Amino acid sequence: MTAQPCCRTRSWKGAGVLVPGLFLLSVTPTLADRVERRFKVEAHPVVTIHNPTGTVTIRAWTKSEVLVVARRATDRVEVDTEQSANRVEISTRQIPDNASPNDLRADFEISVPEDTELQIHNDSGGVSVSNVLGDTNVETIGADVALEDAAGYLTVKTVEGAFLCTRCAGRIEASSISGNFRFIDVRSYHVRAQTSEGNIFFNGEFFPNGIYQLKNYSGIIEVRFSPGDSFDISATSLKGKVNNEAKLTPSSHRHLLPRFGDALFGSMNTGRAKVELSSFDGTINILKRD
Fold this sequence. Notes:
This protein is mainly β. The protein contains no helices and 24 strands. The radius of gyration is 23 Å and the shape is elongated.
């Protein structure tokens, strides 16, 4: 592998300066809305994004390069990019000033090779990733997260942002305080989702030997199934209800019966996957697919 030049830093701001090893591109306020940068990369690159406010949209393409298009709300926010070997780092920061939060917004559209590993930190706005097959880690405060046709090891952490996972594969782990989760047509062998005050909806395949753990404190947990699905299920709600439409047989696994609340244990067909649903005072629905 041919190493890329180290520490090529580009900072986009209102004044242009050129010093050895550091390239600062001048952008006047009238042109501050759009800046574009390209980086040549090898196989399995790593792309890191730190953006306090704004949207981050990432799509996979067939080129061996990373394309970054940034749109700044004003020239009071700087967008820095740096490449070191096969890693590209993208970040925004405010110029010291009494700027309002809206002045510090930056929106990104980023194209990456499909085997890219992503590390995304975005406090507010939104994150959207599609067709990226490398590992993806997303951490937000209030930003919603949407992954589509993604694979690898997918981890999402939010405070109050919602999470939508459509046709995702690989291993999925998601946690939130008050965000809602939706898993649509997922093809994952491992799904673990936990939110305190949020709803969880799951409609996907139950792979043999797969593990699917959905947990909340309050809210609705809803799982959809088809007659041909095979899983062993345990569903408990300490102060809520468990509603079930599946025709279950007694489980071959031992389950500890709770002293209080509503609980359901059993196997669908041969019980090849393991499904664990738990809530404190929420409702759990196990329903047929439409």
